[in-house]
Amino acid sequence: MLHYDPRTGSIECRLALEDMAFGCEREVEYEAAGPCVNCEGRGVDEGDTCAYCGGSGTMLLPRTAIIELPPGLSEGDVLTVPCEGIEDGVTVVVGQDHHPVFKRDGLDLRTAVNVEEFLLQEGGAIDVETLGGEILVKIAAGLADRTVLRVAGQGMPAREDPGHRGDLLVTVIAEAAKPDLATGGRGVDRVVAGGFALVLVGLAIIVATVLVRAGADVCEPSEQVRCVRVTSTTTVEVSADEQEERLDLMAIAFGATGLVVTGVGVRVAYRGYQRIREDEAPVQASPQ
Prior knowledge:
By secondary structure, the protein is of the alpha/beta class. It is built from 4 helices and 18 strands. A hairpin with a 2-residue loop joins strand 7 (78-83) and strand 8.
């Protein structure tokens, strides 16, 4: 909640970049003159001067209001917004909170994206975050490290004309690709297929582990039955609890192996899919 400072007649309002771009509402807490709560505006109480308001019939009362802030704001903008009980409205001084992704450059926004080297060399599609969410951007082949791409219309709206927006300037930073995935446009289908195969193998290991563990028989020792574990040199009696523990440990080991294989498969398939969707990228970026 924002607080109105009657000494300065203004409100300090810090906003996220998204709120500055698209507009927002804020609740304001302030004091404004209103009828005295004791004498109800008459100025007298039982024939005497009202002790609450000193005979004026008014007093400062706490109030709240919702103010609307327009789109296209900038750091340091000063607005005057109406508030009930304050004749000329209140002054709102706009400040900008730090944004973890974007830096503002007039109406343009700047950001940086890590891109694998093979995509810079051969072209492809990359995910780029914007104020409105993530978009898929198509990039040309042969881009150099630290190239700045201009994505039109993804910057800040102009305050005078919110329909006009600046651009998003994206610095692409080369990131070394893992050797097994740096296949570029060659064998992409095989990469995806291999990834899915690893996923299936991992899931099969997990399912088999669950089924085998669920169906495993445990020897129950009794007066007539001895349960032993035979090694190369000795024969050791084992209890049912010890057998259960060993089976659980084996199940955990095989299950963890299955999860690792599945995770590797998902990653490989995703990287291959990144290359395939190049042709689906709806936004074309050009070097600045």
